[in-house]
Sequence to fold (972 residues):
Amino acid sequence: MSGVNTLIRCWAHHTGSGTDGCPPERKNMVVNTQTPAPNRRMILNAFSMNCVSHIQQGLWVRADSRQTEYLKLDPWLQLARIAEAGCLDSIFLADVMGLYDNYQGNADISFKQAVQVPANDPMLLVPAMATVTKDLGFAFTSSVLQAHPFTFARQLSTLDHLTNGRIAWNVVTSYLPNAGDNLGFDGLPPHAERYARAEEYLEVVYKLWESSWTDNAVIIDREAQIYADPSKVRRINHHGQHYDVQGPHLSEPSPQRTPVIFQAGMSDRGRNFAASHAECVFVVRTSTHAIPGIRKDFEKRLNEKGRSISEIKLIGGVSPIVGGTEKEAINKKNEYLEQLSVEGGLVHMSGQTGVDLGEIDPSMPLDDFKTERIQGVVKNLIDTAPPRTRTFGDLIRNNLSGAWLVGSDEQVANELQNRFEAGLDGFNLTYSVTPGTFVDFIEGVLPILQKRGLAQTEYTPGTFREKLFGHPRLPESHPSADHRYQ
Amino acid sequence: MSGVNTLIRCWAHHTGSGTDGCPPERKNMVVNTQTPAPNRRMILNAFSMNCVSHIQQGLWVRADSRQTEYLKLDPWLQLARIAEAGCLDSIFLADVMGLYDNYQGNADISFKQAVQVPANDPMLLVPAMATVTKDLGFAFTSSVLQAHPFTFARQLSTLDHLTNGRIAWNVVTSYLPNAGDNLGFDGLPPHAERYARAEEYLEVVYKLWESSWTDNAVIIDREAQIYADPSKVRRINHHGQHYDVQGPHLSEPSPQRTPVIFQAGMSDRGRNFAASHAECVFVVRTSTHAIPGIRKDFEKRLNEKGRSISEIKLIGGVSPIVGGTEKEAINKKNEYLEQLSVEGGLVHMSGQTGVDLGEIDPSMPLDDFKTERIQGVVKNLIDTAPPRTRTFGDLIRNNLSGAWLVGSDEQVANELQNRFEAGLDGFNLTYSVTPGTFVDFIEGVLPILQKRGLAQTEYTPGTFREKLFGHPRLPESHPSADHRYQ
Fold:
């Protein structure tokens, strides 16, 4: 089916629903006829979080979801086994270090709907999941506000050793004020300050990972009783604005040294940060027509940093809802749609935007919004509302389901191919229910993608970076390379 | 054999070695005839570290040690399985956040002999080991200098959830100046300041663990779509000298909430800290005759804090060398003795004491030390040298092997019983080789202890605290109880 013109019809056309979460540009899209570049393959990550309710608020109540079991090892071991059985590239774990607490001025609905709270540490799931997998990568989120870089760098190296080099770090700078208040920053430091801190944080960890031990420092000569050559280990003596770190790194060089760097912020500053440091960029919900522009934008920014667009992978976010036939998928979607929590969505969006959406009655028709009375986030939301969105609540529901790809296995495969050929390198698969969403995808959609040569059928040997890029270390153009101790 | 008068003969009497690591008070000791108090049982922990060489420097070169495989999951999974097969209480993981770098003014020998460097993060071994065990506890070390208490408390809660309440935290304040320099403290903060910080650190984590969520805050009512009751979760609003933490804790209450608290510092300030906070105190190498005094001292200190001696367990450190018969054990001991690294021991001791022992020639006879020329650490060392110690190197070798208990399975069991009856509640078993030391102990000594009713033959159900103390939460007398949110 590769390269065939295939009409992708949005499920909204079949259901006539006005709250379908289907952005206008997804209608009547045509799959590009161009064949994929040789060796180019779709990166596929299972996107999750060590909590009850990650993105699609309200669905945790379903009996077929294991999300309320997040406290136990078993659902995570199961997820890891499923992901590796599907040759997925990684499990990508999101995180926050604070509450969504600005909706109606408190966190009440956050707790009721479990909107990313409770939320446990993601990093600690990795060693457990590593015991039942051999090739699966593990990407997890850690904010530069939450851990001292010396401690964090050693934790990353420890994980990279234990997993034989399967670790990626999603670098974030936090956006919830409560995170700042929890970590001693007296509120969230301003955006620019957080990114300045992130720059120094990365400088410190690069020095620890790359600059402390040479590749051949560890000898392990039992007869001579020499484990490591002291002349090949050095202190880093970092003295900066935020950190003073003497070193050396206490971990010997791990398979990847610097783990694969993920980044997600889509602000101008965030994109520049990604252009400097990232190897994978999570561009979240990206409509097909916007992809080439985003790709161009990143190409330009990377070039300005002396890097090439081939050095990063652009990862979109999708939530496949499949059920064999299109009809089954639509039935499933309709069930989900009813169970989505509009309040949970409002909480999530209020926290993400920093604007309390709690004063707006969700049942208020969009037509009643006088554009002169609204501005900012709310105006943007209403301006980008899909046609036939009736109420503000429908708009929120649309947002919650915005990443949904609903259809038969083949229809979803087609749409993924379409976006892949438009310039995305892969997808974070967001769950509606876990592990069901991932199982359905792997059983239904994945074999089609594999048959078309778009998705891998077996893992490439080596570290996560080797699997993604074919080379073990970051290229010379990456800022970490400046610190390399040869 | 329980309660029988048994002559324990120190192996030194058989070998005539002057460098035997056998303190004088261990000679001709008699096992108390008193029977153990009902329900009193010996706590047994496997003591290790996520590194090549923990305490008995030099032995990592042995072919029968797996310590050079510390970077991989497999030896840790094996160790966990062995420990649980032996019904040990826990694996207790030590840690440092810096180099031993004052011996001869540098860290050269540290790297050569792998003296606790490289050293990886201990916490990240726990989730992996949890996947292959059900009852084994996990105690690990984390310094109050290395992690922000908000981040750390969530990591502990995450682990406590994943393991169904099997976590203990060994609270330390660091002693290596390089740890301070690595973590932005410009050297190690003074002793008193570190303990003051530790007090506040504990106050913060107690508030997060005990004061944030009520026991019944989490409802999980699917029909009503309510995960948690917001009226039963509150911020902690801690504002102190070192930390400002708003909260609430992001983790819902874990099985133990506050993990079991271990402590090891034997300074006056350290003992007071333990008297306030600890549930298990590692009193390291404790001669039998000194045990009642230590117990009395702790009793007095605990009483001053409104606690009772029954609220803590005193854990000694021993390194059993057994081999079936006494002769086999002695042969093994002689092999180990030859392989111990005096230089490694000097590095370790220099770091621990803060005094560079690098200017002393290890071959120098003790008789040549003019007592008027030496003072401080070196004088203390020489003053407490066992008889027939010839050279300074022998003294160091003696120190490295100071925790050795060498003999037949029964002889070692007798000596453990002796110390147990003198007032120790249990032992951290230090390895010479891993997992061999633990296997030998579990196969040989443990069945004898079990037969005598001194060691458990199966696990008590429940959390680690329930297994140790019979109750799930810390008693009202513990400072954490002040913060309880009912």
